[in-house]
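Example 3.
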Amino acid sequence: MSEAEKKIFNEKVFEKSCRSCHASCGDCHVKSPTIGGVNLGLIKGHKFIRKDETKTCALCHGGRVYPEFTGDYGGSADIHYQKGMMCMDCHSIKEIHGDGKPQTARKLLEYKNTCTKCHKSGLEKTDKAKEAHSIHSEDKVSCYACHSGGEYRNCYNCHLGKGSSAKPGFILGRNPRAKNQLTTLRVVPTVRDTFASVGIKMENFDKLPNYWDTAPHNIKKRTDRTRNCDTCHLEKINFLKKEDLIPNGSRANEGLIFDFRQ
Amino acid sequence: MRKLKNFLGSWLLVVLFFAFAQANDYSPVVSTDWLEKNLNNPNLVIIDIRKAEDYKANHIPNSINVVYSAWAIEKAGRKNELPENDDLQDLITNAGINDNSLVVIVGLSDNLTELVNMTRVAWTLNYSGFEKVSVLDGGFTKWSKEGKTVTTETKKPKAGNFKIKINQKIYADKNLVKNAIGKSVIVDTRMPEYFFGVAKLDFVARAGHIESAVNLPSGWIYTKDGNFKMLDELEAMAKGVLGSDKEKEIITYCDTGRLASGWWFVLSKMLGYKNVKMYDGSAQDWAGDATLPMVKYSWK
C-alpha cells in the first residue's frame, strides 16, 4: 500500500469500519454495540458493568466465538464451557485491556492466552496423550488442529457487492504465520476490489493469503482426529485442497495446502 | 360435585407420587419442596443443565453445572445425538455420580424445549445404565419463583465411581424402527401439524410421519406453568392413544430425539410401560433417507 493509500485507509476504512469494534471503556461496560445498524441500548441503565461476559464480551463476540463456545452454533459446547468456565477464566484483564503500548496485531501480544499455560506438556494423565503430544509437538501441529470439536463459522464473498455469507466449515492447512505448523484456518474473505470504492488498488493482494490461523472456541478432549490417526494421515479429512480454494482468491492461498510428503 | 371429586382424586395421586419419593428414596419426578428438604442428602447429585452463565448468576445450593449441550451433541449434521461412550463416561464421572447416587436434573420450565431438555438428559443417563435419575418438576424456574434459597457458590464434585453400562433397551435406530412398522407402536411426539405433514422444520428433509405412527405430542405433557400434568390425565392420554397394554414395544420419535424423550419419560418412568424406546435420530434421520416413505395428510 502506498503512503497515499495508507492515508485513505486510515481515514475512510479504519475509522468507519475497524474503529467500530476497537472500543473504549463504555463500549463494553455501559452500552451494547451497534451491529448491522441495530443497537440494544444501555446494558443496565447508566451503571458500569464490571464483568458479565454474556454482555461485556458476547455482545461483540456473539457472531462466531461465543456461539461456538456455548454450542449454540452446532456441535457441542466447548469443554471449558461445559466445566462452567467463561471468557475471563482464560483471557486475562491485561490481555483484554492491553498495557497501553500500541500493537500491530492481536496475535503478537506476549501475554495472550495459550492452551499450554494451563495444560502443561509432559503432565498428561495418560501415556496415549503423552505420546500423541510428543509426536505432534506444537511447532508441528497446533492444539486446535486436533482438539477443535467441529465446524466453525467461515465468511465468504465479503465486498463482492452482494454482502457476505457465512457457513460452517472446518479447514486444516499450514499456518500463514508459521508455515511448518498444521492448524485450523478461517477464511478472511477479502477480494481484489474490496477497497476499490475508496480508491485503494490492493496491488499486493497476492502477497497475503485469504486463510488465516484461527482458534475455534469449540475445544474437545476427544475428536475424530484424536480417536483415529487415519482421519488425518490416510483420509485427510478437512485438509485444504486446491479445488476447495475460494475462487479468484490470493495466489498465496496455495502455499497453505499441507502435504504430508513435504 | 363430580368435578370436585375428580380434582381431589387427581391431587391425591400427585401427593402419593411425591410421597413415594420421600419414602423410597426414588421417584422419577421430585417436587421443589422435596428437593429443598433433601438438599443435604449426601447421595443426592443435583445436575443443573442450564447455560453456564445462568448457573453462575444463581443456582440451587449444592447443585453442579453440566450444560445441556454436553449431554446431547450435534454429530454428522444430526442434532441432539448421544456423545461417544468415553465422553459420556467423563461427563458422569466428573459430575460425581456414584453407584448409590440419586440424580436430580434441574433445567428451566419456561418453554417446551427447556422442559424436554430435562427428560432428554434423564434418557441419556438411563441409556448409560444409570437408573435413579429424577426430574425437578417445574425446574429452576419454579424453584426461583417460589423464592427458595439460591447461591452463587460453585462446587467441584469429587470424581464419581459409576461405570456406564449401555442400556440398548431404550434406544432405537433407523433399522429397528423399520422392522417395528406394523409390529410395535410408533409414537410421533411432535405437534399435530408436523405429524400431519403441513409443517416441518428446515433441517428435516421431508414433512409427514413414519408409516403406522400415532400422534401423542410431548407438548401435552405439561401444564401452562411448566409442571407435569396430573398422573391420571397423563395416564388417560397414554391409554387413549396407545392402549393399556404396558408390555408392548413402544418407540417414540420427534424431529431430533429431544421432544420424544418427554413421552419416553412419562410412559416408562411414571406410568410403568415396560418396553419404551426412543428413536434418537428421529425424523431428521428418517426423512433424510429418500428410500423411506413419509406419510402426509393422513392421521393414519
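The mean pLDDT of chain A is 86. Residues 120-256 of chain A form one domain.
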